């Protein structure tokens, strides 16, 4: 990896450094190779570690780098191709697509913003279904689905108090409602500790958060908060309005 003179560059130093590093990744490094540590890189390019860290964060956000627990910063492989539809999910089998795997279901208070979307009292406990999405053997998304008890009134409390069996039961009852539509938002966020562990990311790593409200004729039936790895996924909207993650041999810049 070569060096470059940064002092005379008019654009922000970290942005120019990002460009130089990106070119070096293409020419000098292989997928999965570990980069030198931050101290050595900063010394090589004659920049402060804070500047280097900004450039590395941008490259991570663009999917060029991965920061792996116990390993360091490595060159990322091409983004994984996964299809994610925004059409009404078929929850009849309790999974909602073979890639999503239910892990658990418990009763807990929803976060205040979620409670507001559900129209429930913040002190009210709701069903919280936790699922993980795998593709090609890699975890790419984690989801928390919040379902008020009023949305699944026929759910038997004696079936299973928690676990995957309970999660499937909640999803089956939700399917029976006959959902009428949904709305969603996508925003850049930082991985919470729980999500980071499930997605093999470091806490605070950039993620894409997709929040979806599901409606019936009576109002909001459930709210999903799905966290996608920003370094692995590129979310795109087609003409049909479907949300999907497409294969990207040359990762494009993500808008923040």
TrEMBL record:
One Pfam family hit: GntR
Lineage: Bacteria, Bacillati, Actinomycetota, Actinomycetes, Kitasatosporales
Native source species: Streptomyces pakalii
Highest taxon above the source species: Bacteria
CDD domains: WHTH_GntR (cd07377)
Domain HTH gntR-type positions: 11-78
Xref: SMART domains: HTH_GNTR, UTRA
Protein name listed in UniProt: GntR family transcriptional regulator
Record's keyword terms, sorted: DNA-binding, Transcription, Transcription regulation
């Amino acid at each position: 990896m070569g060096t470059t003179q940064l002092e005379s560059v008019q654009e922000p130093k970290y942005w120019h450094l990002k460009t130089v590093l990106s070119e070096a990744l293409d020419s000098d490094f292989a997928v999965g190779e570990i980069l030198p540590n931050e101290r050595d890189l900063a010394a090589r390019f004659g920049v402060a570690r804070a500047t280097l860290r900004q450039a590395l964060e941008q490259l991570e956000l663009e999917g060029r780098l991965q920061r792996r627990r116990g390993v360091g910063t490595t060159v990322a492989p091409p983004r994984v191709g996964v299809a994610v539809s925004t059409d009404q999910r078929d929850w009849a089998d309790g999974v909602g697509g073979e890639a999503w795997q239910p892990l658990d279901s418990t009763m807990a208070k929803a976060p205040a913003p979620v409670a507001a979307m559900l129209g429930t009292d913040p002190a009210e406990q709701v069903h919280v279904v936790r699922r993980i999405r795998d593709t090609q053997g890699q975890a790419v998304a984690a989801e928390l689905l919040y379902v008020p008890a009023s949305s699944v009134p026929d759910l038997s409390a004696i079936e299973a108090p928690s676990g995957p069996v309970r999660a499937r039961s909640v999803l089956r009852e939700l399917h029976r409602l006959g959902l009428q539509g949904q709305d969603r938002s996508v925003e850049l966020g930082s991985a919470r500790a729980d999500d980071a562990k499930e997605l093999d990311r470091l806490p605070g790593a950039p993620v894409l958060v997709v929040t979806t409200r599901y409606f019936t004729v009576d109002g909001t039936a459930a709210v999903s908060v799905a966290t996608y790895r920003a370094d692995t996924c590129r979310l795109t909207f087609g003409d049909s309005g479907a949300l999907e993650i497409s294969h990207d041999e040359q990762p494009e810049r993500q808008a923040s």
